[in-house]
């Protein structure tokens, strides 16, 4: 019990200092990437479509762990050295972007054609229609799948340990190595991840509820 | 107000509209009737370029377009024509994430870049005009079908178009609430609005139209005053179409018959 309590603070601290900012920053950057990629996929400019497909293909087709290693350990041999934390953010953002590009594309395409036509008949331009009419509705459709991705990102941040980011899991390994209480410490860190995910799930429910204000109950 | 000359529209290789000539004067109400698949809606959608005609001449107010096959229209030209028109859709297509008043304001705020306060005041005036002042802050899902359609009309009026286009505005509505939408349209006519209406409501068409166009298989088969077209049609196809409607109006089909007819004849449930 003493070990549990003693290690709780360092683990939580690592979580708040690394796991949380890693998750928030990567998710924010990733969503922007995802939106741009989805729009590129839906555009009529062929090279943009190819670029978007290529990006999604590469990222989805290779393990996140390998991508992190390439960015952190591989790139320096090309003369590009990136700090561990930044490398983790780049890796996670690219991953979030690729997976959610498809989510956003599907959400945008799920909005009925009549919405486009009604907005066009008012004289709105394509970008105005996207911004004012389509994306707000697509956002609602994509909340559940995006939340999935958000929560799995929280847990994926543990992979950053492999590229020397002293996030929660790395701290847990260090503490376990000293105390030999592997079962206890790893269960403890699992509980903390569970705690973070639970908060986020509650947040998801709030967001969904917010979007439901204009749908039939 | 509107002039079409030799408008053709193909979907792929299939001709939908053939050599359409049309003239709509200012303040006039033109009703387009015809069987399903005759090209009525396509013709209407060509007027605000939701469908681009394959070829022909189109003029609305003082903006015109001459199209040859293979031409693509510049976005700026599309916008010019479009801003002369407002459209009311069969399925209303209100923006579900916006309240009634926000729906009506949207064009003013986004297209005309009006200040929100001003736009809201104008939108409220329009909602009052269609009898929905008290529903301004309701979302579309909270409104009945007839109310939704009246918000749709207010939205189409917001940018003060020269012409209002109605694409079967009552076809998706329950019979008992069709009247409230038709009343609003009647009021607009009184005010001198120029309107082009595609409808299956023949009695209403007769009542409101200054000019009837009967379209079949992409061709204007017959046109004229309502009395002329309804009482003394000169073309065989017009007679057949009107006879079929009469037959259906006189005989109320039994439930079983209605089921039999419903898939083939969309007029069945709509003509009263």
TrEMBL record, chain B:
Major location (coarse): membrane
Protein name: Amino acid ABC transporter ATP-binding protein
Classification of source organism: Bacteria, Bacillati, Bacillota, Bacilli, Bacillales
Keyword Glycoprotein listed: no
Coiled-coil regions, chain positions: none
Key words, A-Z: ATP-binding, Cell membrane, Membrane, Nucleotide-binding, Transport
GO molecular function: ATP binding
Top-level taxon: Bacteria
SUPFAM superfamilies: P-loop containing nucleoside triphosphate hydrolases
All copies of domain ABC transporter, residue ranges: 2-242
Subcellular location: Cell membrane
Protein topology in the membrane: Peripheral membrane protein
